[in-house]
Design a protein that fits this description.
With about 325 residues, this protein is α/β, with parallel strands linked by helices. The chain is built from 10 helices and 13 strands. The chain has a domain of about 200 residues: Rossmann fold (3-Layer(aba) Sandwich), CATH 3.40.50. The longest helix is centred in the middle third of the chain and has 18 residues. The chain is globular and about 65 Å long. The protein binds adenosine-5'-triphosphate (ATP) and magnesium ion. Magnesium ion (MG) binds next to helix 1.
Length: about 325
C-alpha cells in the first residue's frame, strides 16, 4: 500500500474477501482487504479478537477451515495469484515460499516423537531430504538458528519449555527456506521475558535471512518494537495502515486511537488506560455503514449508512474513515 517507486512488492493482496458459510449464517470475516509486503519487511497485523486476522492469513495459504471460502480478491506473490493456482502448485508455495507459525502452535508437536525427528520428517515430506539421516545436518542447523543446541533435537516436546517449543516451531516454519513467514500471535502464551526473546529471534532471523514477516498480534507495543509497517483491522476490514511511526505519532482512525489509549504508555505513567466500550460487530449481522460506527465517539450520519473506503491520506498512510476523506490522494477500491 505504500508508494515506493521500486520493484513490485513481494506480496500484493488485493481486495481479499473471505466468508464462513455456516448454519448460523454467513460470517463476513474478511472484506476487501488490501495490503502489500515488501521483501525483508516486517508488517504488524493488529486488531481485537475476532476481527479476521487469522482468517486473512489462513486465506493466503489457502488453509481455511471447511466452512471458509475465499470469495474474492487476489494474493499476488511475485506477480503470481495464489488464489488462481491448482492445489499441487499451491503445495509448492506453501511452506516453501510462505510459511506460517500457527496461533497456539507450540503445543502442536506430537508428544511421542522427538522434536528433531518431527523436523526431519517435515524435511523429508517436503522433498528436502531422502530420509531422516540425510535430514539430520539441516535439523541441527535449523535448531541452532533458533538458539537450540542440536543435541536437544533428540528430546521430546515435554522436555522443552514453552519458549523452546515456540522456537522449535519457528525452526519448523523455516525448514523450507521461505521468503515470507506469517507468525500468528507467536508470543501470546509466553511470559514477558520469553516473549521478548522470541521477538528478538524473529527480528534477527528476519535480518539475517532477509525474510518478510507478517506478525499477527493484539499487542501494539510488540508492533512498535519489531515492525516496519502496521495494518489495523476492525471487524474484517482495514481500518488504517502506515509506517509504524505514523500509527503512534499520528493515528487517524478513531479505532486506532482508542486501541492506543487501551495500552500502557511508559512515557506517560500518569496516563489512564481506557477500554473501548461495546463489542466488535457480529460478522453475520453487520451494520450497513462503517463497522466501527456503533462504538465510535466521532460517528456522524453518513457513517451509519455508507461504508468508508480505504484512502491514502498521507504518503503511505491509508485510512478507511469518512472523517478523513477530504484531501485524500486516492481511493483503493
Ligand atoms: N470455523 C469458523 N466457522 C465460522 N465462523 C468462523 C470460523 N472461524 C472464524 N470465524 C469467524 O471469523 C471471525 C474472525 O475470526 P479470526 O479467527 O480470523 O479472528 P482473529 O482476528 O484471528 O481473532 P483472535 O485475535 O482471537 O485470534 C470470527 O469472529 C468468527 O465470526
Ligand atoms: Mg487469530
Amino acid at each position: 500500500m505504500s508508494e515506493r517507486p521500486t520493484a513490485p512488492p513481494l506480496l500484493d493482496v488485493r481486495d481479499l474477501t473471505t466468508r464462513f458459510i455456516t448454519p448460523e449464517g454467513v460470517f463476513h470475516a474478511v472484506e476487501g482487504l488490501s495490503f502489500q509486503l515488501e521483501r525483508g519487511e516486517s508488517l504488524g497485523l493488529v486488531g481485537e479478537s475476532g476481527c479476521g486476522k487469522s482468517t486473512a492469513m489462513l486465506s493466503l495459504l489457502r488453509l481455511l477451515p471447511a466452512a471458509g471460502r475465499i470469495v474474492g480478491g487476489q494474493a499476488l506473490l511475485d506477480g503470481t495469484d495464489l488464489f488462481g493456482l491448482d492445489e499441487s502448485d499451491m503445495r509448492a508455495v506453501r511452506w516453501h515460499r510462505i510459511s506460517m507459525i500457527f496461533q497456539g502452535a507450540m503445543n502442536a508437536f506430537n508428544p511421542v516423537r522427538t522434536v528433531g525427528a518431527q523436523i526431519a520428517e517435515a524435511l523429508v515430506f517436503h522433498g528436502l531430504a531422502q530420509d531422516r539421516g540425510e535430514a539430520q545436518p539441516r535439523v541441527d542447523e535449523l535448531l541452532e538458528m533458533v538458539g537450540i543446541t542440536g543435541a536437544r533435537g533428540s528430546q521430546y516436546p515435554h522436555q522443552y519449555s514453552g519458549g523452546m517449543r515456540q522456537r522449535a516451531m519457528i525452526a519448523m516454519a523455516l525448514a523450507c527456506s521461505p521468503q515470507v513467514v506469517i507468525a500468528d500471535e507467536p508470543t501470546t502464551a509466553l511470559d514477558v521475558m520469553i516473549q521478548a526473546q522470541i521477538l528478538e529471534l524473529l527480528e534477527r532471523l528476519q535480518r539475517e535471512l532477509g525474510l518478510a514477516v507478517i506478525l499477527v498480534t493484539h499487542d501494539l507495543s510488540v508492533v512498535a518494537e519489531v515492525c516496519h509497517r502496521v495494518l489495523v483491522m476492525y471487524g474484517g476490514v482495514l481500518a488504517e495502515s502506515c509506517e509504524v511511526d505514523g500509527i503512534f505519532n499520528q493515528p487517524l482512525h478513531p479505532y486506532t486511537r482508542r486501541l492506543l489509549a487501551a495500552f500502557p504508555d511508559l512515557s506517560r505513567p500518569e496516563g489512564k488506560l481506557v477500554s473501548i466500550p461495546g463489542y466488535p460487530p457480529r460478522l453475520n449481522a453487520l451494520p450497513p455503514g462503517c463497522r466501527f460506527a456503533p462504538r465510535c465517539e466521532e460517528v456522524h450520519e453518513r457513517c451509519l449508512q455508507e461504508r468508508p473506503k480505504p484512502r491514502q491520506v498521507l504518503p503511505g498512510h491509508w485510512v478507511a474513515c469518512h472523517l478523513h476523506e477530504a484531501g485524500a490522494a486516492n481511493d483503493r477500491t
